[in-house]
Design brief:
Length: 214
């Protein structure tokens, strides 16, 4: 317990840093994932191509490489932001590709006749997607979206290598101070467990309320 009690402030800062990264990156991933899923099923060919390229590139790019591209590449184009913001952009964009595919799979579970009926009533594509298709698709994708965001929380550990305050990065300071490395990582693991179990519990509540009964 000495590792935790003697360095509670350090652990707390790392824990809060990981929570902030997870929350902000999750919000960005959900928004971008929704937009890209809409593009993937849009009747406009250029939108479908853009959505397909976005998903294909990001899903097949190592997250560490994406961090390097964002952290080192964007400043070369004059975009200078705090490392925390760059980390949120990298995590959010990367995860949005997976959210997009989850949403698209949910959209594909909605019978085609639902969309055709909405269009026959004079509804536009946006109205059909927002009022008819997505509400039904959302009920089927709650569990996989929860799993995707749990993965995002764990992937946030990469940000520590880029001078971003997060939970895993605390081991460097504690190792330099001579603390037992095993117990250092045990308490780091406990912190991640708290975060992931919280996300899991939240989506379990959402699934019980809105999910499809099985």
């Amino acid at each position: 317990m000495d590792v935790l009690t003697d360095n509670f402030t350090l652990y707390g800062e790392g824990f809060l840093g990981t929570v902030e990264l997870t929350v902000y990156a999750s919000a960005l991933a959900l928004v971008l994932g929704f937009v890209m899923a809409s593009f993937r099923v849009a009747p406009v060919g250029s939108f479908r191509v853009f959505g397909t390229v976005w998903v294909t590139v990001l899903r097949n790019t190592p997250l560490t490489l994406l961090f390097f591209a964002v952290m080192l590449g964007l400043p070369r184009f004059g975009l200078v932001l705090p490392f925390e913001v760059f980390a949120v952009l990298a995590l959010g964009c990367y995860t949005s590709a997976f959210v997009c595919e989850v949403l698209r799979s949910g959209i594909n579970t909605v019978p085609r006749g639902q969309g055709e009926a909405a269009r026959s009533l004079g509804m536009t594509f946006t109205q059909t997607l927002g009022a008819v298709v997505l509400p039904q698709a959302f009920r089927t994708v709650i569990p996989p979206i929860g799993s995707t965001l749990i993965a995002l929380a764990k992937n946030s550990a990469i940000a520590g290598a880029f001078s971003v305050t997060e939970l895993l990065g605390t081991y460097k300071t504690l190792s330099e101070l001579g603390y037992n490395i095993v117990w250092t990582f045990v308490w780091i693991a406990v912190g991640y467990l708290i975060i992931t179990l919280t996300i899991s519990a939240l989506f379990h509540v959402l699934e019980k309320r809105w999910g499809v009964a099985r």
